[in-house]
Model the fold of this input.
Amino acid sequence: MASIISECDLLITNDSGPMHVGYAVGIPIVSIFGSTSPEHTGPVGKNDIAIRKNLECSPCFERECKKNNLKCMDLITADEVFESVKKLVSSGKAVFFDRDGTLCRDADYLKSMEDLEIFPTVSRLKKLKEKGFSLFGVSNQSGIARGFMDEAFVKKVNDIFIDEYAFDGFYYCPHHPDEHCSCRKPEPGLLFDARADHKIDLKASFVVGDKDIDMLLARSVGAKGILVKTGKENYSANADFIVKDLEEAVKIISDEKDQTI
Done:
């Protein structure tokens, strides 16, 4: 069940085990509550919606109604559920880019602006905006936890891509690998955050990076992965495409977009 639910774009459920599985694997949820309470049992996702009716007798936490009616459920309409679903349905398309080795030279824990070398081909990415894609950075930055640089510096570098190259956002993981967090690639936490913030359809999106973990990230959410040979790895068995640089990646994405119109 967990495997099947993880493939969903959205889950409609009552207060149940599958609801807990849904938010555990990061799926947007519309949950319907009758005699129980969302304050007690969730869901807990960033934009999850809990539908309930605030009645004098609810929540009662009883398995059978002592008043012999089901008002707490009957007053919830299909239209109300459908309107909630529309709020969570994601339709936007995005391209997610690793940073070091993909957008700029991998300096082995970039920690000074003097070592920042942005690839000239980054300027080509604006063409993807014309194709209707949003652009996001997704980067592991364990150097923060290791004490190699402070978080303010990482944000300063990331903001360059937002301010000068029309990126729509930049997500990063500041944790040490030993923390086993859900946001360190190839775990999909960063992409789930982007989906919640910008209503992104991950299955219609791309992940571009220079490492196998980026390709595994793409696979984990049903996106297509493009490996660029500008970093430390020249091959990944998990890549959908392997290209020389960002310019070739833009062509691949543009051609794929044109074929779906």
